[in-house]
Fold:
Amino acid sequence: MKDSTIVLVLAILGLAGFICYVSPTVFGATLVLLLCLAVYLLPWIVAVLREHHDTGAIFVLNFALGWTLLGWLWALIWAFMNPALDSRQARPAPMPATWHRRHRPKAAGR
Structure:
């Protein structure tokens, strides 16, 4: 986990503890609200944790259409998809010209 994520989680837990101290009923409502928000933003959270290259677009899709089940599922599937490989990684290195001559299949009659 990144340090900023840990700090954010600790800040939320500290705020939750303070709210619980002030009023247990408000704490329960806040906890339910935060849980619903986390489920609603789950596709974006997954994209951030997986370091997806389209994290911003996934957030916009999730925020705009997440209230529809179809938009939320679309964003979640997109967040789990593997990012496209860099063009330098997509192609294997070429074989040397001599490799083909040495590894040519032998004819059946020889």
In short: The longest helix spans residues 3-22.
